[in-house]
Design goal:
The protein has one domain: Porin (Beta Barrel), CATH 2.40.160. The chain is 12% helix and 56% strand. The chain is built from five helices and 19 strands. The relative contact order is 0.15.
């Protein structure tokens, strides 16, 4: 199958769903409370790369970048595996509605390993507008091992003003962050802004208290301390329009990483990070919502060796990901739903060495990414789903320059996904499924079987 055919299938399913709804009765009572899309899940996962630098392989000391999109253990099906395993647009929106919940998602990426994540959130009121909240974010995949708890406290004033403070509770004390912010919240949405002191206690611990070299061979000295700014808006405008905007930046910072037994051995590193995500959603009729979204993230890591440092620590690494696309959500009947989305993604990465210590990297791939699924979901009972998913990716330049299990991450991956599960009212649902390969994986012994996965969500 060619790329145009696969993209046409996704578009055709969406058009068919629209036609079906147009001919249905407008008086049907629809289970459309979560018939919305959101960028908040993507934004939060991306922002965690700022709050939790130690989660990536090698942390800040790694030369693979902030995002490590091209970790050596990532193969050419990682991108489509993430589509299959991560919650969909509607499920992501439903997760952000309740105050308390837990969820798990996981899926096979090879015969031995899963890409898996777990999220926990809890919030209770203390009276007089005070609330405390706790979140825990866990994710394991090639290049990433995250276990991040966060504790927050909030004060709400009438009619809508609120202020909050939050801290990350990292086992490595120098990597703890402190956030303060505020905003406005009402029945139509919320707007908030915050500032974060990243690695808030790093200089106090490494430069003030001093860490014994037996505990940490490498120490950090912030010559320009890192701060992060973030602003988020999600709001309904009238009866049919809903918008989201999320922007964040880690301001330019400079850190000196050195061996405690040889202080001139190491490197000095300048860093910066920026991200933005936006969504516009239009309610065509109560049963149909459509819209567009855009996402962007860019990081810069500029490293220079200290006098006794390594020549290979003399480079400038720039990562960028841009995604632009659209979606359609259709509630056919109270139990039948169709969701479809399609994105154009561009991922350039450059790594320029100032010496001949290593070859430069000038890489870029571009992809059409998409998913269309049909779901049957009883209010209490059977949950079933069938989906067509694709990641049609081509390497534009730099073939083989980024680290990977495979020589090239350029691949036209397509698959069918099937799931069965059970819904226990609005409190709990669980499902599992398997994937069928459509593109004919070369050099594998699994035939058409393309992995299995499972999810569970609990609200209280």
């Amino acid at each position: 199958m060619g790329a145009r055919f696969r993209i046409g299938v996704l578009s055709g399913v969406a058009v068919l769903a629209l036609a079906t709804v147009a001919s249905s009765t407008a008086t049907a009572q629809l289970d459309s409370g979560s018939l919305h899309a959101t960028t908040l899940g993507w934004s939060e996962r991306t922002w965690l790369y700022v709050l939790d630098r130690g989660a990536v392989d090698g942390g800040r000391l790694s030369d693979l970048g902030w995002l490590q999109r091209f970790h050596p253990d990532i193969d050419d099906e990682q991108a489509i595996d993430e589509i299959s395993v991560h919650p969909g647009l509607g499920d992501e929106f439903a997760w952000w509605l309740p105050a308390n919940g837990a969820r798990y998602w996981g899926g096979s990426i090879n015969h031995r390993d899963l890409i898996a994540g777990m999220d926990l959130k809890a919030r209770i009121g203390l009276g007089r507008g005070w609330r405390v909240g706790f979140t825990f974010d866990k994710e394991d995949r090639p290049g990433l091992e995250r276990n991040l708890p966060r504790l927050a406290i909030e004060k709400q004033w009438t009619p809508g003003i609120f202020a909050f403070g939050e801290g990350t509770l990292d086992a490595l004390k120098p990597e703890m962050d402190v956030t303060v912010g505020g905003g406005w919240r009402d029945a139509h949405g919320e707007a908030r802004a915050s500032v974060t002191i990243l690695d808030a206690f790093s200089d106090v611990i490494y430069q003030g208290l001093v860490v014994w070299a037996g505990f940490a061979d490498t120490a950090l000295d912030y010559e320009k301390h890192p701060y992060a700014l973030r602003g988020t808006v999600h709001r309904r405008l009238g009866g049919r329009l809903r918008v989201e905007l999320d922007v964040g930046a880690a301001l330019p910072s400079t850190v000196r990483a050195y061996r405690q037994t040889a202080t001139d051995s190491g490197f000095r590193q300048d860093e910066r990070f920026g991200m933005a995500a936006g969504l516009v959603e239009w309610s065509i009729v109560p049963q149909v919502r459509a819209g567009g979204l855009a996402r962007w993230v860019r990081t810069v890591m500029d490293r220079a060796p200290l006098p006794l440092g390594r020549p290979e620590d003399d480079f400038r690494l720039v990562e960028r990901t841009t995604q632009v696309g659209g979606f359609v959500l259709v509630q056919l009947t109270p139990r039948w739903r169709v969701e479809s989305w399609l994105l154009r993604e561009v991922r350039p990465q450059t790594k320029d060495y100032r010496t001949d210590a290593q070859p430069d990297v000038d890489y870029e791939d571009r992809a059409w990414r998409g998913q269309t699924f049909v779901r049957y979901l009883a209010r209490f009972g059977l949950k079933a789903e069938a989906a067509l998913e694709l990641d049609v990716r081509d390497v534009i330049r730099g073939l083989g320059q980024v680290p990977s299990i495979d020589p090239s991450l350029g691949r036209h991956n397509t698959r069918l996904r099937f799931e069965l599960g059970w819904r226990f009212g609005n409190r709990f649902w669980v499902d599992g499924g398997y994937r069928i390969d459509l593109d004919g994986d070369v050099g594998t012994d699994h035939g058409r079987f393309d992995g299995a996965h499972g999810r569970a969500v609990l609200f209280w």
